[in-house]
Write a structure and sequence with these properties.
Length: about 260
C-alpha cells in the first residue's frame, strides 16, 4: 500500500459514520459486560465505559479527541468487539471524547476548541466533564491515548515513563511494522526521536501552557502511558490495524504495578 496523497493542509482522507461506529461500540460493550457512564457536557453527551474485573491492574484507553482522526474510533470499536484483554484487568474506555468534531471530521469541537490542548484550563464543556469523571475514578497503571497524524510518514508513539519501568515501546513499534509503515525520521512533529518511531517528551508542567489529555493523566492519574499516532495519509484499514496491533502489544500480560516486562 502507498500514501493516498490526499492530505493537504489538513486531513482530507476517508471518513466514517461516527454515530454508527459509537453505537456499535456501545452495543458490543453491553454484550461484554461493560458499565456505561453517560455524562452530559452542556448539550453534548459523552460515553464512558467501565468494566471491573476484580483484578489488581487498571487500564485506561481513549480515542476520538480529535474529530479528524477517524481510525481511532474504529480501532476502539474493534478492540471492544474482540474483547481480547488480559484476564483480571479492570478497564476504563472513552471511545469518543469529541462527538461534535467526530461528527463533522474536524480536529476541534463545535466551539472551535482543540480539546487535546485544554486539560490545563478546561475551557470546553467536554474536557471539563471528562476531568470531573476522571476525578471519580481510581489511578490507572497504564494509559493509552489513540491518535492519528495526517502529516506523518508512518506510525509513531509517545512514551511517558517517569518511573523508568521496562519499556514496551520498541516491541510495540516492531509489531506495528508488520502491518503499518513506521515513521523513522530523526524528528517527528518537531520533536527529536529517542528511537525510530518513539518520542519520549518532557513532562515538566512548566514547559506546557496548554495540556493534552496524556499530560493531565500523568500529573493526576497515571505514571505510565503511550500516545499512539497512526499515519492518516495512508489507507484506513492499515491505520486501524496499526493502532490495534500497538494496543494489543502494550497490554500483553504484564504486572504493571511492579513494572514487569510485557510478555507475548
Amino acid at each position: 500500500m502507498q500514501r493516498t496523497g490526499q492530505n493537504v493542509g489538513g486531513y482530507r482522507g476517508e471518513k466514517i459514520q461516527s454515530v454508527a461506529v459509537l453505537e456499535d461500540c456501545r452495543k458490543f460493550a453491553r454484550e461484554r459486560g461493560f458499565i456505561e457512564d453517560r455524562v452530559l457536557a452542556e448539550d453534548v453527551e459523552l460515553l464512558f465505559l467501565r468494566r471491573p474485573a476484580e483484578g489488581s491492574v487498571n487500564l485506561y484507553i481513549s480515542a476520538g479527541i480529535h474529530g479528524d482522526e477517524p481510525a481511532t474510533q474504529v480501532a476502539i470499536r474493534e478492540l471492544v468487539r474482540q474483547d481480547a484483554w488480559p484476564s483480571g484487568v479492570n478497564l476504563w474506555i472513552c471511545p469518543c471524547l469529541n462527538p461534535t468534531g467526530c461528527l463533522k471530521t474536524t480536529r476541534n469541537n463545535a466551539s472551535g476548541i482543540d480539546q487535546n490542548r485544554d486539560y490545563r484550563h478546561l475551557r470546553s464543556s467536554e474536557v471539563a466533564a471528562h476531568v470531573d469523571w476522571l476525578g471519580k475514578q481510581p489511578s490507572f497503571d497504564l494509559h493509552l491515548c489513540l491518535h492519528e497524524d495526517w502529516e506523518a510518514d508512518g506510525f509513531y508513539l509517545y512514551e511517558i515513563n517517569p518511573e523508568g519501568r521496562p519499556s514496551a515501546a520498541t516491541e510495540a513499534i516492531n509489531q506495528v511494522a508488520e502491518v503499518c509503515p513506521i515513521d523513522r525520521g530523526k524528528q517527528i512533529d518537531g520533536r527529536e526521536t529517542a528511537e525510530p518511531g518513539i518520542i519520549r517528551p518532557s513532562i515538566d508542567p512548566l514547559t506546557r501552557s496548554d495540556w493534552p489529555e496524556a499530560f493531565w493523566l500523568v500529573q493526576h492519574r497515571s505514571q505510565w502511558g503511550y500516545t499512539l499516532e497512526s499515519p492518516s495519509d495512508w489507507p484506513m484499514e492499515l491505520r486501524i490495524n496499526g493502532l490495534i496491533r500497538a494496543v494489543l502489544t502494550l497490554i500483553a500480560p504484564v504486572d504493571w504495578r511492579t513494572g514487569g516486562k510485557p510478555t507475548r
